[in-house]
Amino acid sequence: MVRTAILGVGHYVPEKVVTNDDLAKLFETSDEWIQQRTGIKERRFISESGTGASDLAVPAVKMACERAGVAVSEIDAIIFATLSPDFDFPGSACFLQEKLGLPGVAALDIRNQCSGFLYGLQIADAWIRTGMYKRVCLVGAEVHSTGLDFSNEGRDVAVLFGDGAGCVILGPTEEEGRGLVDIEVHADGRGARELWLQAPSSANIPRLTAKMLEERRHFPTMNGKQVFRWAIEKMPEVTLSVLRRANLTVPDVDLFVPHQANKRINESVAKKLEFPDSKVVHNIEKYGNTTAASIPLALSEAWGDGRAKKGSTVLFAAFGAGFTWGAAVAKL
Ligand code: UT7
């Protein structure tokens, strides 16, 4: 039976490190508050105009290809998960395709926020198992820093997010005990307004006005408590569901790579599932929440330091804006 294998994984983060103390110079917050509530110590921001999500994706793709032993020219489809595309349209996948020098290759953007990587993985899995494509490049990449409200009004959101990119190269395998075992994704649009960016909006005439800017509606807003509550309920629920479908239990999993939104969320999820901390990948302290990039970025670091290796059973779970959530289990 053909399954979808993760052939290689890579990541890239911009060089500029922004600490909690740096943010405390911009609005009322403190290193202590941010670390206590979120686990974040620092994040990376792009340092100059002209660097979009597709630019961060390029080195991540190259690293993933190198680790996979796949030439960039072998990629036959690109899926780009992002909530911060370079432009409203066309999608960042098209810009990435141009930068990789792959004219003609299919290029799809998906806009599923923190669960974007898992939605992309489900699509790629269907493409590969039906034989449609052989080397799918699935990228999660975000430039959040240019869209955050660095004032007291926006501080709850501004402290959370960072820029970065992660990529997996996916392809078919018939190797026994290798490949994506199962995946499921969900959404509940009743939560759409709990974490969103209201402007510009095609439902407004015109899409962007001086009044909207004055009201700071071009910055994301969040009902943090509500998002937190849903995340700690849905992530364990979907994780157990996917494990059940895969006929696996928590002790069968070698590594749990959750989306990095808040260390307290992941600690709560791990506790509910009875995962020992040694099996959970955390890197939010260094990068903050990089949304669609966070799972491949965390997997890439775990791959680099040997925690994720050939034969490992790896579990992914995510929850985010939409609301959207999902989980997947794969054997590397
Ligand atoms: O990927 C999915 C996306 N997002 C998430 O998963 C986020 C989920 N939510 C969270 O992570 C948490 O709700 C936050 C970290 C955002 C906030 O933590 P909290 O424990 O829910 O704090 P809170 O919103 O209840 O705020 C507590 C206090 C408030 O002050 P008062 O009203 O108690 O006087 C806030 O104004 O902390 C204040 N506050 C801050 N103080 C210092 C909010 N943001 C900040 C800040 N620095 N950056």
Note poorly predicted spans: none
CATH-scheme architecture: 3-Layer(aba) Sandwich
Which molecules are bound besides the chains?
oxa(dethia)-CoA
Beta-strand content estimate: 15-25%
Biggest beta sheet attributes = 5 strands, mixed
* Main CATH class: Alpha Beta
* Total separate domains: 1
Number of strands: 13
Supply the number of helical segments: 11
Instruction: Name the strands of the widest sheet in spatial order.
Output: 1-7-6-4-5
CATH topology: Peroxisomal Thiolase, Chain A, domain 1
Kindly describe this structure.
There is one protein chain. This protein has 332 residues and is of the alpha/beta class. The protein has a single domain, classed as Thiolase/Chalcone synthase (Peroxisomal Thiolase, Chain A, domain 1, 3-Layer(aba) Sandwich), CATH 3.40.47.10. Helix content is 33%, strand content 23%. The chain has eleven helices and 13 strands. The strands form four sheets. Strands 1-7-6-4-5 form a five-stranded mixed sheet, sandwiched between helices. Strands 8-13-12-11 form a four-stranded mixed sheet, sandwiched between helices. It is globular, with a radius of gyration of 19 Å. The two termini are 16 Å apart. The site of oxa(dethia)-CoA (UT7) has 19 residues, from helix 2, helix 6 and helix 8.
